[in-house]
Amino acid sequence: MSLLPEENKNGEIIINGKAQVVDILKRLPEEQKNKILGDLKKKNPTLSKELKIQTLSFHAIIGLESRDLRVLLEYLSSPLIAISIARAEKAVQIKFLKSLDSKKAMEVYRIITSETSNYGINDIEKAQNKILDSALILSQRQIIQLV
C-alpha cells in the first residue's frame, strides 16, 4: 500500500485514500483513533472494522480481556512473549505473566530478568508484530475477540 500517487495501466494517476487514512490513524493517540473509528462505525461499520484491523497496535493486545489474552499467549513461545514485553511497564509485564500458566510464566520471567536480555527496539517491535499477527488470525477464526 503506497501513500504516494500511482499510475494505473492507462497512465491515470490514482491516490490510495484508504492507505492515507490508515497512515494518519496509526499516528494518532489511541483515544483519538478510537473516537474517529467509533463515529465512522455509526455510518459505515464495515469500513470502520477494516480500518480498525489495519491500524491495530500492540496496545490492542495489552487491552485484551483476561480470557482472550490467556488464549492468545497459549499459542506463543516464551521467548516471543518475553521479548515483546521486555521494556513494557511493570503493570503490563505482570498482566502477561498472570495470564500464563506457572511454568511458562517462570520461563518468561527468567528471560526478561536475565542479564543477557538487552533487546533493541527493533527486536521488541518484531516480537510485538508477530503477536499482533497471531492475534489477528485467532480473531478471524473467532477464537479470541480482538476487534
Number of strands: 2
Tell me, briefly, the overall form. Answer: elongated
| Helix run count | 9
Major β-sheet strand ordering: 1-2
Uncertain segments: none
State the separation between the terminal residues, measured CA to CA.
22 Å
CATH topology of the largest domain: Annexin V, domain 1
Please describe the biggest sheet, giving its number of strands, its sense, and whether it closes into a barrel. Answer: 2 strands, antiparallel
Q: In brief, what are we looking at here?
A:
By secondary structure, the chain is an all-alpha fold. Helices cover 67% and strands 3% of the residues. The radius of gyration is 18 Å and the shape is elongated.
Could you characterize the architecture of this molecule?
It is a single chain. The chain is an all-alpha fold. It folds into 2 domains: 1-55, no CATH class; 57-147, Annexin V, domain 1 (Orthogonal Bundle). It is 67% helix and 3% strand. It has helices spanning 17-27, 30-43, 45-54, 58-62, 66-74, 78-85, 90-98, 102-113, 121-140, and strands at 6-7, 13-14. It has a two-stranded antiparallel ribbon. A hairpin with a 5-residue loop joins strand 1 (6-7) and strand 2. Helix 2 (30-43) packs antiparallel against helix 3 (45-54), helix 6 crosses helix 8 (102-113) and helix 6 (78-85) crosses helix 9 (121-140). The longest helix has 20 residues, at 121-140. The radius of gyration is 18 Å and the shape is elongated. The mean pLDDT is 87.
Topology, pairings included?
Blueprint (H helix, E strand, L loop, with lengths): L5 E2 L5 E2 L2 H11 L2 H14 L1 H10 L3 H5 L3 H9 L3 H8 L4 H9 L3 H12 L7 H20 L7
Antiparallel strand pairs: 1-2
